[in-house]
Specification:
By secondary structure, this protein is mostly helical. The protein is built from 8 helices and no strands. The chain has one domain (11-212). The longest helix has 29 residues, at 184-212.
């Protein structure tokens, strides 16, 4: 195991993560207020993988801005945010962009959540150069828990998530998880592919961090 802690980052890196935290907080709080004011479900809002990924990035960005590093059991939280936000940016731009027509300030919130925070997190990784230990693999508890929660809730509670433009609501946050429409085979294959990508991103982050870590 590589348990030697990373050295605290300098002021410039801390300011980068502080700016990331402020930007993410602005978009997340703004969207939550918008959802509540429109009478939509806040439980649904915080059930999106995108929102949870942004929250994980936000929390660890605050920690890094204050402490200059992600030591001890913050490592799984940091890696969960990094992996989640990377997948969020990739899946959105490859599969989901354009499914909803956005207006006004929501366009900017969307830009922050799906583009600026994912890109900023990748830049932040190379600025921070964290030397992550094997405990970081505990990050897997979050995506596994999210999938279980999402599928079980969709089956028993029938939440109403906004579907693609012009289509009826969904019981799951994303249409590629809708087994009632496409069957469990495609959904299972999609989840396995995303899981492989998640593990690959995590392995790359841990390996790269150990090579270039401060």
């Amino acid at each position: 195991m590589h348990d030697t802690p990373s050295r605290p980052a300098g002021l410039g890196v801390r300011l980068w993560f502080g700016a990331m935290a402020a930007l993410g907080a602005w978009a997340t709080v703004g969207l939550a207020v918008m959802v509540a004011s429109e009478g939509r479900s806040l439980v649904n809002f915080f059930s999106y993988f995108t929102v949870q990924s942004n929250l994980l990035v936000l929390v660890t960005a605050v920690v890094i801005a204050v402490r200059g590093q992600v030591g001890e059991w913050w490592e799984p939280v940091y890696l969960a945010g990094l992996v989640g936000i990377t997948i969020t940016g990739a899946v959105y731009h490859l599969l989901l962009a354009g499914q909803q027509t956005l207006h006004g300030i929501e366009i900017w919130y969307d830009l922050v959540h799906h583009t600026l925070v994912p890109a900023g997190s990748l830049v932040g990784f190379f600025l921070l150069r964290p030397r992550l230990s094997d405990r970081a693999w505990w990050f897997l508890a979050w995506p596994v828990g999210w999938v279980a929660y999402t599928l079980v809730r969709g089956a028993v509670a029938d939440p109403q998530f906004r579907g693609p433009e012009g289509e009826p609501p969904l019981a799951v946050p994303y249409d590629f998880l809708d087994a009632t429409a496409s069957g469990w085979g495609p959904v299972t294959v999609t989840l396995l592919l995303i899981a492989l990508v998640a593990v690959a991103i995590a392995a790359a982050a841990i390996t790269t961090g150990r090579r270039i870590g401060r």
